[in-house]
Write a structure and sequence with these properties.
Layout lengths: L2 H8 L8 H19 L9 H15 L4
Helix pairs in contact: 2-3
């Protein structure tokens, strides 16, 4: 579902990028979400802030710096 939005965002076809890297990022994201941040029901008031916290943590610990 997200392929079209990624193509529009980067303005290039995804054939230029390897699928393994993207899938590895997805797996790493889900592992962090499951281990530290998961909120089982999306309609819970805490869901958006927990998702944001996970994104910040994931990006800061996987920045490659």
């Amino acid at each position: 579902m997200h392929v079209g939005s990624v193509i529009r965002a980067i303005g290039k076809p995804l054939g230029l990028y390897g699928e393994q890297e993207l899938e590895a990022l997805h797996q790493a994201w889900w592992a962090m979400w499951d281990a530290r941040y998961m909120v089982k029901k999306i309609d819970r008031p805490s869901y958006p802030s927990r998702q944001n916290d996970c994104a910040l943590d994931f990006n800061s610990t996987n920045s490659g710096a």
